[in-house]
Design goal:
TIM Barrel; 8-stranded parallel β-barrel; 11 helices
Length: 310
């Protein structure tokens, strides 16, 4: 599958949590569909085979279904999620919550009815942003339903995590079994130059043979903000003749070595810039320098929660 995959979070809806604004873009659904197909085609041409989406990514899951059905590639690996519903209705500047979480059995069954159209390429099915507060890891009906999907369709069952309790959620999930079998095979985790708190836990997951998918590798665009931190990234970018995005992604690849690092590119040029991360390796001294950029997780997630949708 390679090291870089493509996430659909910014390809399927007109606004997303990010620092960098998209200016001059056609924000119609038709315009987004055309752009999504271009980015997906480029990704495939450049060797990307892992594609990740969710029902809450606006039209992201639908676009991936259409593209997959049209292109008929036999070697793609698809991943989706359940538990969030997109409610912004494609309105620019929508003032309320853009997506609503519901980790109920009825929501799982309802979203699976659509997501199953990604089969047979669908390989990973995840709880979207599992938390202790939603009670999903204690909901036996939900866990048993996921186990049935795993058995019936040969899926890897996974979860995505966010927030300062990522480590605790992962530890709890690893202990869950259904009918004597570990339920979770895949963990999609936020890890980047600023949020490195899960490093040791992710190493243990790797030792267990679980799939690790890294999201938000560019920290929702925060790697682009001018600061003393940005100077470190910029100096390395200048050395390797790439953008700071490639440095940030390469750090994840060299420091953690997960199976998949998701690019969240929303434009072809952004994806091309991200893929330059494959063209070099960081040395030990450079990795140590970037390790020092880590923030306290409480501070990282506090800053992230203050970001606006745009």
């Amino acid at each position: 599958m390679g090291k870089i995959g493509l996430g659909m979070a910014a390809l399927g809806r007109p606004e997303y949590i990010n620092i960098k604004e998209n200016t001059g873009k056609d924000t119609s659904i038709t315009g987004f569909r055309v752009n999504a197909f271009k980015v997906l085609d480029l990704a495939y041409e450049q060797g990307i085979r892992f594609f990740d989406t969710a029902p809450s990514y606006g039209k992201g899951e639908h676009f991936l279904m259409e593209w997959n059905a049209a292109r008929k590639h036999k070697d793609v690996v698809l991943s989706t999620k359940w538990g969030y519903t997109y409610v912004a209705d494609w309105k620019i500047g929508y003032s309320g919550a853009h997506e609503i979480k519901e980790h109920s059995l009825s929501k799982l069954k309802a979203q699976w009815e659509t997501s199953k159209d990604l089969l047979p390429a669908l390989a990973v099915y995840q709880i979207h942003s599992a938390t202790f507060e939603s009670g999903v890891l204690e909901n036996q009906e939900v866990l048993e339903e996921l186990h049935e999907l795993k058995q019936n369709f040969g899926l890897k069952i996974g979860l995505t995590v966010s927030g300062s309790k990522q480590n605790e959620i992962i530890v709890s999930a690893l202990q869950i079994q259904c009918k004597g079998v570990a339920l979770f095979d895949s963990f999609q985790v936020t890890y980047n130059v600023f949020e490195q708190s899960c490093f040791e836990q992710l190493q243990r997951i790797k030792e267990c043979g679980k799939l690790i998918i890294i999201k938000e590798g560019l920290a929702n665009g925060r790697v682009f903000i001018s600061s003393k931190t940005h100077e470190v990234l910029s100096e390395l970018a200048s050395k390797y003749k790439v953008g700071v995005d490639a440095i940030a992604l390469r750090f994840i690849m060299d420091n953690l070595d997960p199976e998949i690092v998701l690019s969240g590119a929303s434009e072809m040029e952004h994806l091309q810039d991200n893929l330059k991360a494959r063209d070099f390796r960081l040395n030990a001294n450079e990795l140590e320098l970037l390790q020092k950029l880590a923030m306290l997780p409480e501070n990282y997630w506090s800053e992230r929660s203050a970001l606006s949708w745009q």
